[in-house]
Each structure stands twice: as structure tokens, then as C-alpha cells.
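Propose amino acids for all 475 sites.
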């Protein structure tokens, strides 16, 4: 299967849920209110963070199956070993999640007594949800290793649509109470587990149960470093919203969460490319891997530069149209600050994936551990000084550090300076012009000329084509 098709499948599958959310989020806010929506957002953050209990085995299964081809017995062991480990860890994580979330919602976040009763009554459902999520990652890893991205994205679109629509339907036709809304989400997750399992079973020669402690240790050894990144990374990504909730309450989380959720959707572009490339990168030699990576970086630079600039121009007007003018006034500049961080984060996706393909997920994991205490101190201080704007600036600063480190350890410094830095400079200059002059015709004209020129220079001929799969070193 070509990277061209896989990237297209990933991109379409990632973009489709966005259009659904553009319709459903305003309906949620009007039907259940900002406070309930903020609480559901925090529950989602908890589930995302405690998803680290999958121990990185989704990525490990992908890497192992991609490297051990045409070995049915090994594939069967990899599958069942990963399922056992992830179900066990997901169950333990679900219990811990119940205790932690109970403490946070009962005593750490200010809310009405009515909402507190609702969310505490819904927390036992999280014990069920977490093992479903961790085991699903194994099945998804199998499909990625087999490059069955069409099925993955069809399932993801279906599940994303149902997660957004089913709870909304419950709120409209039954009651907008948190236990019912979260129950609907859990039911959809269980259905998605069945979908992914049935497809994985059709692709792998899954026979009778065959757990191997040796294989489990091998998977955990690789996945352990992915998990460490999974522990620290989500903490750095989501702790801003948790801290905002603790300091300012769930309504402030909504004002930060919506623009954050909106602008970070741009990361779907590099994710679509890197997920499709990963099985190939695992088997590439060093020279081929570097050549394939350069084409990918050039493509990302060509596409991301105009995407970020357009987003900076449009975000305030879009938020006004999507929500209302008061919301846009509070969240528009915040989204523009976050967009600069999104650009750095998008560029970092490729070298990070290369490190994992080379079997070195430990390098960025160690960096994240080192970064964490400094980031949390800066985040707390900036949030106290400037509120949600300070949190956005801290998040953006962290993405800059991550990007530089990932290019350093992947030994792709030249690619960063050649293809990423010019794009970053153009976006920063444009933001500076906007701050000083606003979006005048001169600013827009200068930006348009530079962006078109850079798109023409950086876009590689035939990047998303069969050429990317059949590169010959020295050709």
C-alpha cells in the first residue's frame, strides 16, 4: 500500500470529525451549558492522560509486527501478549483514575453542588472506559502495522461521529445530565473496540490464546519509553487546562479548550504523513530514511506555512461566527499565540517518529522528564501573571524546546535550518506585523507573496506519490 493513499486516508479520516464538531459544539454549549461542557472536557483529559496505562504497546505492536514480517506464530504471540498486558494495566489504571478524579472533582474544582453530585455519580463509568481504550490501542497498532489505514479511518470517523452525536441526542431527548452523557460515550467506546477487534482478527492469523512473557517483556521494553513520553507528554499538554480549572474554574477551561482544540487540529496534517510512513521507516536503512524524511519535511513546510497564516488571519472571525463576538474577544488572541506553538509541534512530529522507528523512543522520553519541572513552574507563574494568555505562551515555549531537541537527536539539524526555520520566521514576522499594524492590505500582500514563494520553493515534486515509496539512495 502506498504512502500516498495511506496519507490521504489518514487526513480525510482526521478532518471529517472536525466538521461534525463544528456543528455539535455550539449545540452542546446551548443544551448543557459551559460548566457541564467544561467538566466533560476535563473528563476527556483524564481519560487521555490515564491512557498512558497502555504502556505504549499500541506503538510497540506496530513496530514489532512491521519488523517481524510473515511470521504467523510471532504475530499471534505479539497480539495476545499485548492484549493481556493492556487489559490488566487498563483495569488498574481505571481504578486509580476513579480515585484521583473523585478527589479532584469533590474537593479541588469549584462547581455547584448539583454538578458535583452528577459528576461523582458518573465516575464509576471511567473504570470501564479505560481498559476499553487501552485494549483498543493494541488492535489499532495491528491495523497500522498491516497498513490498513482505510479501515482505521473509516472506523475512527464512525466512532468520532457517534461520540459527538450520541451524547448530544441523549441530552436533547432524555436529560442533559453528566451520568447519561458519559454513559453514552462509554457505550460508543465499547462498540469501537468490537469493530477494531473484528478487523484485526481478519488481518492477523489470530489463533488460540498464546501469551508469552518473553514477548510481553520485549513489547514493554520498547513501549516503556513510549509510555514515559506518554506519562510526561500528556501531562505537559493537558496540565494547563487542569491548572486553569483548579485556579479559575470549568468555565475558563472552556474558553481555553475550544481555541486549543481548534488550532491543534492542524497537527492532523503531519500525523497523517508520519503514521503512514512509520512502517516504512522501521525497515529503511539510515540513508533511505533520511531521504524519505527530507521529502516529508519539505512537504510539511510547504503545506503548514499557508495553513498557519490563514488560521491566524481567520481565527477571530471564525470564533465570532462559530460561537459569538464575546467569546472571540477572549479567545482570538489566545488562539493566535497557540498557532505558533502548533507550527513547531507539527515540524517536531517527523523527527520524533524517526526516533521511534529507529528503536530510540528513550531519547525524547528522557528530554520530557527533564523538561517537566521547568515547564510546570513556568506554566504556574505565567498563569498567575497573565491568566489563560500566559498558559498559551508557556505551551508554545515548550513546543519550541521539543522541536529543537527532536531534530537534534534525530540528527536532522540541516533539514530544520533549511526547510523549517524559514517557515517559522515568516509566521513570526507576520504575527509581528499584525500586532503593530493589524491585518491591513500591505500586511496581507507581503504575506501572500512570501507564502506563495515558499510554497513553490519547498514543495517537492511528487512527494505524495509512488516516488516516496520507491526512493533509491543516490537516485
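Proposal:
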Amino acid at each position: 500500500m502506498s504512502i500516498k493513499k495511506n496519507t490521504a486516508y489518514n487526513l480525510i479520516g482526521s478532518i471529517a470529525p472536525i466538521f461534525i464538531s463544528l456543528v455539535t459544539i455550539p449545540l452542546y454549549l446551548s443544551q448543557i451549558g459551559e460548566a457541564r461542557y467544561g467538566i466533560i472536557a476535563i473528563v476527556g483529559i483524564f481519560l487521555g492522560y490515564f491512557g498512558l496505562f497502555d504502556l505504549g504497546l499500541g506503538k510497540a505492536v506496530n513496530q514489532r509486527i512491521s519488523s517481524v514480517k510473515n511470521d504467523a506464530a510471532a504475530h499471534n504471540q505479539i497480539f495476545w501478549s499485548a492484549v493481556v498486558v493492556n487489559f490488566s494495566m487498563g483495569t488498574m489504571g481505571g481504578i486509580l483514575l476513579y480515585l484521583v478524579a473523585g478527589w479532584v472533582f469533590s474537593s479541588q474544582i469549584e462547581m455547584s453542588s448539583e454538578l458535583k453530585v452528577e459528576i461523582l455519580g458518573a465516575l464509576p463509568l471511567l473504570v470501564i472506559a479505560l481498559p476499553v481504550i487501552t485494549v483498543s490501542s493494541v488492535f489499532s497498532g495491528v491495523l497500522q502495522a498491516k497498513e490498513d489505514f482505510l479501515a482505521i479511518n473509516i472506523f475512527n470517523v464512525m466512532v468520532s461521529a457517534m461520540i459527538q452525536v450520541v451524547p448530544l441526542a441523549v441530552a436533547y431527548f432524555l436529560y442533559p445530565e453528566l451520568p447519561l452523557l458519559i454513559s453514552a460515550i462509554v457505550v460508543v467506546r465499547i462498540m469501537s473496540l468490537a469493530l477494531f477487534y473484528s478487523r484485526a482478527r481478519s488481518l492477523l492469523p489470530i489463533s488460540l490464546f498464546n501469551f508469552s512473557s518473553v514477548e510481553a517483556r520485549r513489547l514493554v521494553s520498547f513501549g516503556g519509553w513510549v509510555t514515559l513520553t506518554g506519562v510526561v507528554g500528556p501531562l505537559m499538554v493537558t496540565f494547563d487546562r487542569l491548572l486553569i480549572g483548579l485556579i479559575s474554574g470549568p468555565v475558563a477551561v472552556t474558553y481555553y479548550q475550544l481555541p486549543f482544540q481548534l488550532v491543534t487540529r492542524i497537527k492532523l496534517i503531519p500525523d497523517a504523513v508520519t503514521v503512514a510512513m512509520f512502517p516504512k521507516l522501521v525497515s529503511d536503512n539510515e540513508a533511505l530514511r533520511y531521504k524519505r524524511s527530507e521529502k516529508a519535511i519539505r512537504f510539511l513546510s510547504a503545506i503548514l506555512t499557508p495553513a498557519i497564516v490563514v488560521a491566524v488571519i481567520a481565527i477571530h472571525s471564525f470564533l465570532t461566527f462559530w460561537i459569538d463576538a464575546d467569546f472571540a474577544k477572549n479567545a482570538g488572541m489566545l488562539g493566535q499565540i497557540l498557532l505558533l506553538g502548533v507550527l513547531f509541534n507539527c515540524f517536531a512530529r517527523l523527527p520524533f517518529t524517526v526516533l521511534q522507528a529507529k528503536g530510540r523512543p528513550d531519547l525524547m522520553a528522557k528530554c520530557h522528564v527533564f523538561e517537566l519541572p521547568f515547564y510546570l513552574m513556568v506554566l504556574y507563574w505565567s498563569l498567575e501573571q497573565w491568566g489563560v494568555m500566559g498558559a498559551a505562551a508557556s505551551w508554545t515555549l515548550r513546543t519550541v524546546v521539543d522541536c529543537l531537541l527532536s531534530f537534534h537527536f534525530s540528527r536532522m539539524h540541516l533539514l530544520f535550518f533549511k526547510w523549517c526555520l524559514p517557515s517559522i520566521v515568516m509566521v513570526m514576522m507576520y504575527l509581528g506585523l499584525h500586532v503593530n499594524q493589524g491585518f491591513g492590505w500591505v500586511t496581507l500582500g507581503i504575506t501572500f507573496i512570501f507564502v506563495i514563494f515558499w510554497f513553490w520553493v519547498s514543495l517537492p515534486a511528487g512527494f505524495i506519490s509512488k516516488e516516496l515509496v520507491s526512493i533509491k539512495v543516490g537516485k
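Residues 463-475 have pLDDT under 50 and may be disordered. The chain has 17 helices and no strands.
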